[in-house]
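User: Run a structure prediction on this.
Assistant: Running it now.
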Amino acid sequence: MEQGDRNGRTTVKDHEAAPQTSSRGKLVKAGAQASEISGKALGRMIEAFMGLPGIGKKSAQRLAFAVLGMTKEEAAGIAQAILDLKNNSRYCSVCNNITEDTVCSICRDEKRDGSRICVVEEPSNILIFEKTGIHRGRYHVLLGALSPLDGIAPRDLTINGLMERLGSGAVKEVIIATNPTVKGEATAIYLSKLIKPLGISVTRIAYGLPVGGDIEYADESTVSRAIDGRREM
């Protein structure tokens, strides 16, 4: 889908739409080998699966053969689910969570604690926090992290949208839950400097999460400990 403005976005951006040259070469080579042995259709399927994160050649081959063993109805169902996901998904106009509506269910939930906002890098991080059941406040998704070397500046994130939400005066605490990486830490420090002058408490999730890791791959108990051990910045 087309990528719009990050601070007022509705359509979902396409992550890693074009693999790096070296990775692309591996995909083409694997697909070509399979094409020679089992036909072009299977080769293209393997190449497509290898374009997904965390999927290597062997896993791609297993998935391709699994699809091959499905009925046409089952395969069509998967294909339609992928199209529906791409066509119907959008960013919440308030927090940038993934939703099919203008405003996501979390932002619409009046039982949520509107005085606390948990700031995360990606919408997938929200799923992990929600599994713990420990955070009953709201969220704000930055859609990335600061990275000058990669050309990602504050204007490229949804920081303006966050500051607008904080301007209402209803928020008392901002929990910064960016990933414990160099980029995530730089983003946390930058946000802290922006938010503290507003008189709002700024906390950082504790390092129950492994340094250098992504929240997306953490289990519920680890995330729960990290939330409980958050600290003032």
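The longest strand covers residues 113-120.
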